[in-house]
Amino acid sequence: MKKVWISLIIIAIATSSLFAQEKTPKTMAQERLSYMKENLSLASKESQSFWSVYEQYLNDEMKAMNDYRKNLEKQGIKLGAPGTNKEIIEKLTDKQLSYLQDQKFELRKTLLNLETTYYKKYKTILTPKHIQDLYNLEYKYKREITQKRKEAKKDTTGPVNAGKKKR
Question: Is 114 inside any structural domain?
Fold first, then answer.
């Protein structure tokens, strides 16, 4: 469940204009793929079969997130990056809030089904050790992206009390 939440957060970050800095979701997926290729050591036989499957997983994950956003936008709900939506959410009607919550659960189910499907595919290609290495690297990558986002946000907002005198 934690992986699903982390995936949601990272993907939402990747699709936001605040974090993406001119990067598209497709570009972010390609960067993730490159990171994984650089850091996951596979035998050539595994590598030949695995990377096309993993790339398809990233595309399916990106499609699920895009569908989620499109479904929300059809109801007049346009969210930004996580942590920036408080004011937007406060302005939603009860009907929109209910729809938002329903869509969040649907997205979580979709992503969990996606992970389950691809885990079964990974098992036919990779050793259990390599699968564990893959998940560890994904977690590490997502933490690094989250950290970079926090640092970028801190750089753009500056000190909280800048310009105020202490009394």
Answer: yes
What are the CA-CA distances from residue 76 to residues 8, 79, 81, 94, 134 (Å)? 20, 10, 17, 13, 37
Length, in residues, of the chain? 167
pTM over 0.85: no
Is 125 within 8 Å of 53 (Cβ atoms)?
yes
Domain count, the chain: 1
> Could you report the per-residue pLDDT of 38-70, keeping only the tens digit for each?
999 998 888 989 999 999 999 999 999 999 999
In a domain? residue 138: yes
* Phi, psi dihedral angles at 82 (to 5 degrees): -55, 140
What number of H helices and E strands is found in the chain? 7, 0
